[in-house]
Amino acid sequence: MALLKYNGGGDWYANPTALKNLALFCNETLGTNFSSNYGTVEVGSVELFNYPFIHMTGHGNVVFSDQEAENLRNYLIA
């Protein structure tokens, strides 16, 4: 899993325990085997495709360039 880093000042780094808690909940409730260690990936990076799950959090503005939106779209439909 990875935390999605985006532009726009939307506090993408907010809630630093959210993804760890989600991994723990899924492991205990659903029997998954997610690591509580996670990466951070930028929305426009090809590295996005290295993660089967991404988590987006924060408040405020989220801004994607056309290239970032296309990259995220391709990730989501893959």
Provide a compact summary of the structure:
The protein is of the alpha/beta class and 78 residues long.
Task: Break the fold down into its secondary structure elements and pairings.
Elements (H helix, E strand, L loop, with lengths): L1 E4 L12 H13 L8 E4 L11 E2 L10 H12 L1
Please give a structural write-up:
With 78 residues, this protein is α/β, with parallel strands linked by helices. It has one domain (2-77). Helix content is 32%, strand content 13%. It has helices at 18-30, 66-77, and strands at residues 2-5, 39-42, 54-55. A 3-stranded parallel beta sheet has the order 2-1-3, with no helix packed on it. It is globular. The mean pLDDT is 93.
Features:
3 strands; three-stranded parallel beta sheet; 13% strand; 32% helix; 78 residues; 2 helices; alpha/beta
The radius of gyration computed from the alpha-carbon positions, rounded to a whole number of angstroms, is 13 Å
Q: Compute the average pLDDT.
A: 93
Shape: globular
Strand-and-helix sequence, N→C? EHEEH
Q: In DSSP terms, counting alpha (H) and pi (I) runs of 4 or more, how many helices? A: 2
Instruction: Report the sheet with the most strands, covering strand number, pairing sense and barrel closure.
Output: 3 strands, parallel
Structural class: alpha/beta
Low-confidence stretches: none
Strand order in the sheet with the most strands:
2-1-3
- The proportion of residues forming helix, as a percent range, comes to 25-40%
Q: What is the rounded distance between the termini? A: 16 Å
Task: Report the portion of residues in β strands.
Answer: 5-15%
